Amino acid sequence: MKKRLYVPHPGHFDGLKELVSEAGKDIYSIFMAGSPDYVGTGRSNLSSPQIEDIREQTAYAHKNGVKVELVLNSSCMGGRQLTPEGFNLIHWYLGQLDSCGVDTIVVADPYLVEIIARDFEMLPVVSVLSFVDSPEKAKFYEDLGAHSIVVDPDVHRHFDALHAIRDAVDCELKLLVNEGCLYQCPFRYAHFNFFSHAFGPQPRPNVLDDYYYERCIMLRIKDPKLITVSPWIRPEDIKEYADITDVFKIGGRTHYVNWILNCVSAYTDESYDGNLMDLLDCPKALKDLYYISNRDFDGAIDHWKNCPTVCANCGFCRELTDRAVKVYAGGGTEDEGMVLWSEMADKTEVRA
């Protein structure tokens, strides 16, 4: 069965035209954010299309055989959705999106899953920010009316959990292949709640920096093994999930179109010969620090499929990091080169 790729779209019409022109035959659906004036999302927005923009872009995508998905996956709406005023405004906006011909809507709130399934033609998709990591959670959302569930990436290498989820529900399962967030991230809930307010309806907090992102980046500068254990899925390993799903989502709607097209090519071909960091949605800030040859991870999935993921008792990912992760050295000078991270000095405090 041919895999179906959900591809990020920055939200502006020129970007959509380029995606369709360059890779339309490989794209099953694009996904983009809606207006933050109604419901926030789990990311910042490069573009925030208004209703008429969405209508126009949806018509263009459908004309070219591409479906359209809107992301309204705020993990916190401050209870506004349960007030009469908030409900009426959100319900009106969902009705407008439905009239635009939008195919699917990604939400994180169980209440919105049920409302969309009950009141609209477009289909509800359970966001990755609903943290569905067990058959019980998956069944709960399916019973609410979910058409599709984006499985929590933390179980991407727990094949027993993935098969249990698959056996528990009949709805579509979708895997987010290139999210590079920390495995079992302690910041995840707080971070996405922050995004939901910072990039959601007014009033928005006037913050000077993003503590969670900066802390996350610093942890991986200190120890790149945290990149290795992050539950991304390599293009070559898509086939290992064939008995779970044929639906895969490429994260990255805050990136530019050329970056997105590179990812589409890699996951369409199920092969990539470059720097693994080029494909990871997060942490893109580290792309110019680390070079990790994707080919150095050939065969690693065979271990991960059977790994109990008790890292303190297993040195596999540490050894893999030591021989695969390289650091750019030279500071952008003519002496620029790459050296193994494991050969750099002063690493003893992170090599446990």
Would you write up a description of this structure?
- The chain has 352 residues and is α/β, with parallel strands linked by helices.
- It has one domain (4-274): TIM Barrel (Alpha-Beta Barrel).
- It is built from twelve helices and eleven strands.
- The chain has helices at residues 13-23, 51-63, 84-99, 110-119, 135-144, 159-168, 188-198, 211-222, 225-228, 257-269, 300-304, 316-324, and strands at residues 4-8, 29-33, 67-71, 104-107, 123-126, 148-150, 172-176, 247-249, 290-292, 325-329, 337-340.
- It has an eight-stranded parallel β-barrel with strand order 1-2-3-4-5-6-7-8, surrounded by four helices. It has a three-stranded antiparallel sheet with strand order 9-10-11.
- Helix 1 (13-23) packs parallel to helix 2 (51-63), helix 1 (13-23) runs parallel beside helix 10 and helix 5 runs parallel beside helix 6.
- Residues 348-352 have low confidence and may be disordered.
